[in-house]
Amino acid sequence: VDGVDRVIPLDELAAAAAQADAIVVTLPGTAATEKLIGAELLAGVRPGTLLTNVGRGTVIDEEALLTALDDGRIGFAALDVFATEPLPQQSPLWGHPRVLASPHTAALSRQEGTRIARLFARNATALLDGAPMANVVDTVEFY
Q1: Residues involved in catalysis
Q2: Nearest residue to 85 (alpha-carbon basis) of 99, 108, 105
Q3: Does 138 have pLDDT greater than 70?
Q4: DSSP secondary structure string for all residues of 63-126
Q5: Backbone angles phi, psi at 50, to 5 degrees
Q6: Edge-to-edge strand order for the sheet containing 49-53?
Q7: Residue 80 Cα to chain centre, angstroms
Q8: pLDDT, tens digit (0-9, with 9 covering 90-100), for 56-87
Q9: If you average pLDDT over residues 44-56, what whole number do you get?
Q10: CA-to-CA distance for 53 and 63, rounded, in angstroms?
Q11: How many other β-carbons are positioned within 10 Å of the β-carbon of residue 93?
């Protein structure tokens, strides 16, 4: 794939994370990704590693993340998704000095309604014509 220098097998993810200065999570929430960023992976990261999650909150083990934040392995975490949403008021992530909690609203725009209507119309036409539809969701994995 153009622009991709390296593909890392899942069983080498922790070793690759240990070499990174930053980890950006964009994964969907599935049984295969649940708590993928957990204690084992976080134990090996460089001190001060940055972590951002814009995928799904269930991918990160929040207890393991808090431990890694407290001991400095994760220097800063920017999170706009959480395992439980909305993030409970009693969560220690709210007040943690090295956590930025932001709303998961990146898709909102004034054009959103128009874009949704156009996509629906395009897919309805494709369905009636027997053509492939756009943005089909896997009903098992839901992404």
Answers
A1: 56, 104
A2: 105
A3: yes
A4: HHHHHHHHTTSEEEEEES--SSSSPPTT-TTTT-TTEEE--S-TT--TTHHHHHHHHHHHHHHH
A5: -90, 145
A6: 22-25, 49-53, 74-79, 99-101
A7: 9
A8: 999 999 999 999 999 999 999 999 999 999 99
A9: 97
A10: 15
A11: 17
